Amino acid sequence: MNEPVDKTFIQRQAATIGMQLWQVPADAAPVSQPLEGGEHVDLVVVGAGIMGLSTALQAARRGLSVRVIEAQEIGRGASGLNGGQVIPGLKYDPDWLIEHFGEQRGKRLIAFAAGTADSVFDLIRTERLNVSHARNGWIQAAHTDTALRAAEKRAQQWSARGVNASILSPGEIAAKTGALGYIGGWFDRRAGVIDPLAYTLELGRIAAEAGARIAVNERVTRLTRHAGAWRVETAGGRSLVAKTVVAAANAYSDGLIPGLARTIVPLHSFQIATAPLPPSIASSILPGGQAVSDSRRILIYFRKSPDGRLMLGGRGRMSLPRSAADWAHLERAMTRLFPALEGVAIERRWFGRVAITPDHLPHLHEPQDGLIAAVGCQGRGVGLMTSLGARIAEYAATRDPAALPFPVSPIRPIPFHRFRRVGVAAAIAWYRALDALER
User: Fold this and answer.
1) From CA 373, how far away is CA 259, in angstroms rounded?
2) How confident is the model at residue 266 (pLDDT cuts 50, 70, 90)?
């Protein structure tokens, strides 16, 4: 049985869409082509986020016939609502990947992870996407000696592999961020920032131009395997047949694939944006335009927008927001880091849903032949899912397992998943209290 659509979440999320910071490209045109019923295609992609659209784009360019089916509008999920930080790498350092996956697989993973930011900025450049972007690097800011030692280790490992990375002194990180409370960090010059909504919409445009047919506001409700193909049915009563199906809903996964939604913990990422900063303040906050994430257990991330606002995000409440007070923890974090922003108006508040896996790695699954699913971005979704989509498209076209950077694993639901969110909420509250003691 499929789990019911979370209509309350969709409605509450839609109410915040108009409050977000990101922009629809001025020349954006509708790309939707409604389902006709009875279609036969090589590939159906369920979900029109970054990974789904990247998969569709690259599969269409490989000559596959492609249908994308999206339950909402393009950009309504986390792909269009995230912080727009394009960060390469994974949560784990290169040496750990080799130790955990072995020399051969580990080196392939390192090479894949190292190039995820390149995939985004190269696509924007070569396709001339109408996406605001800047590639000025990313800073992981350390607030304790332990965190600084971890940053030094990470920078050393990537530098040994040719990455232009460096450690920042207390004075350097203060100058680059303008924030209080950090004692150093590491600076990765591969990274940058984009407008994620514009990027997702532009991916939809070029995927459609490549031949992928996209249907929006159409929810897939059932997948059945028959005679070597997949029958895909929707809530609107339409159906089509595909050789391969890619489930690309990530944090919005429901009961379409049995057990998949129970392999992740969905969390809410809340974000705020100030009014455009006065020049006297703006010149001292992120003068180089870098993106920043910090080392706290419940991390804070921030960047500037093209029109001079400070955007700051972090974990929000587990339940849905009810009022502006649900973003108050971010406002407190902002003025703690930047006391000069006391009294500056908060003009945007929004949130999205993200997926966390227990081991903090992306997971690839193929529970039946020709049914592929990917979940778990771990805060690096823009670059990771752009790159992963291209690899999944290659796999769909060639069936070569070497195309996939991560090993395909069985679907293993988290034990007592129903209670996991309660435990995570308690852990977040505890970690936030510990973070407060380490200011």
Assistant:
1) 12
2) confident
- CATH number, residue 259: 3.50.50.60
Domain containing 326: what range? Answer: 137-191+266-356
Structure-token pair, residue 217:
């506001």
How far apart are the C-alpha atoms of 104 and 174, rounded to whole Å?
A: 40
Do 343 and 254 fall into the same domain? Answer: no
* Short-list 286, 331, 372, CA closest to 85: 286
- Asked if residues 95 and 159 have their Cβ atoms less than 8 Å apart, the reply is no
CA–CA separation, 390 and 55 (whole Å):
5
CATH number at residue 141: 3.30.9.10
Indicate the angle between helix axes 196-209 and 50-61, nearest 10 degrees: 20
Contacts with 214 (C-beta within 8 Å, 6 or more apart), sequence order: 31, 32, 33, 48, 56, 67, 68, 70, 74, 204, 207, 208
| pLDDT band, very low/low/confident/very high, at 437 (cuts 50, 70, 90) | low
The number of distinct structural domains making up the chain is 2
Q: Give the whole-angstrom CA distance, residue 64 versus residue 373.
A: 18
Tell how strand 220-226 and strand 239-247 pair up.
unpaired
Same domain, yes or no: 349 and 259 = no
Distance of CA 222 to the CA centre of its chain: 26
* Cβ 24 vs Cβ 196: under 8 Å: no
306 neighbors 273 (Cβ within 8 angstroms): no
Looking at the structure, do residues 252 and 185 belong to the same domain, yes or no?
Answer: no
Q: At residue 332, does pLDDT exceed 50?
A: yes
Instruction: Report if residue 117 sits inside a domain.
Output: no
Residues 253, 271: one domain?
Answer: no
- Which of 195-199, 209-213, 305-309, 377-381 has the lowest average pLDDT? 377-381
Q: Is 111 helix (H, G, I), strand (E, B) or coil?
A: helix
Q: What are phi and psi of 324, to 5 degrees?
A: -60, -20
